[in-house]
Amino acid sequence: MLRPDRGKVGQAGNNRLWRVVVGRFEAGIAHQGKVGEMKNQFDGVVVNELRRFEASLEAIARNLRGKQILTPSEKSLVQDAYSSLKEELRAAKKYGTVGGAKRQQSETERLFFSPAVNRALQSLTAPTNSNPLTSRWRSGLFGAQHEISYRLHGLEKYLAEGN
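User: That's the sequence. What structure does it adopt?
Assistant: Structure tokens below.
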């Protein structure tokens, strides 16, 4: 899936970008000592990453909605987007952190991000090279969207309550 602001989903540059963003927040916490302020900014990064996953899942599902047949180029595009998303989710699952960085999880990553990523990845069981129009693809996308949306809603409610 192509994005005007970031290029192809799952592109290696995206992971480097998130590592830079996360590193800056961590450096800011350590250097400035403004833990509360930096924590809130990092919480925003977690929210944005979950929204990005949610939007990617929705875009893939939208490309399949109502279709009985896919052209070879449509099939390839959808499979590439699905494959890239699964790679990103696997990278995020490895350490349970935004960008897949090896570091201690923040509270919001531990409570919301990691469970959302793990459950979404468990839902995406269809092989990346299989036919995107199968019910296994659709049910997997629906399940993954549900998990991300559910955890995102919980995170937004958690942050609104001032935790």
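Residues 2-160 form one domain.
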